[in-house]
Amino acid sequence: MECNKIKDILDAYILGALENEENNKVKQHIQHCTECKKYHDESVRSWQKLQNLPTVSPSVSYADRIIKNHRRGKRIMQWTISTVFILLVMVLFLLFLLFFLFEYKKEYPQHHIANLEKIVWRFYSENKTFPNTLRDIPEKLFPKKMLFQRDDNGQVLDMWGRPYEYHVPGKHNKGFFDLYSFGRNGKNDNGSKDDIRNWK
């Protein structure tokens, strides 16, 4: 065997980790090779020195620090998981809130006109006739919790600050009244497109 290969496996030879055939080859080589024999003897002495080193046990304070660091790391991990969970719940809540507000904003104009329609019918139940205009409806018939506003002429305003359209008798609702808003675009679409109305 070549010297370089012998040196590569010499530690394994010293520790008895080689197969019998390879072990015998190394043994024969170092018996005839002065350089490898010298390298072998130095390696043996090094291993003996390592084996003679005293065993060092960790101090109590060091062990305590290890345990404390482990516990602190565990607490940090628990805190991190709790924080992530709380943030996740908050994000889900915000998404739900945004969805609710979007749906509420989309549906609220229809609720607004439906409540105004109920007020007109309340006027009818008290007076046995429909009001000629919405300004004829007294304030007492408007519940305080319902957010209705009037302009300077007393007309009831829709969600976009424009007067509701009110016609009696109704063209679409035969026998009573038509009530509608021009919607977001403020254009008279004759009750179609984004107009909000009290008929189907």
TrEMBL record:
InterPro entries: Anti_sigma_zinc_sf (IPR041916), Pilin-like (IPR045584), T2SS_protein-GspG_C (IPR013545), Znf_put (IPR027383)
Domain Type II secretion system protein GspG C-terminal: 109-199
Domain of life: Bacteria
Occurrences of domain Putative zinc-finger (ranges): 3-36
Pfam families registered for this protein in UniProt: T2SSG, zf-HC2
Transmembrane annotation, as ranges: 79-102
Keywords for the protein's UniProt record, in alphabetical order: Membrane, Transmembrane, Transmembrane helix
SUPFAM superfamilies linked to this entry: Pili subunits (SSF54523)
Protein known as: Type II secretion system protein GspG
Lineage, broadest ranks: Bacteria, Pseudomonadati, Planctomycetota, Candidatus Uabimicrobiia, Candidatus Uabimicrobiales
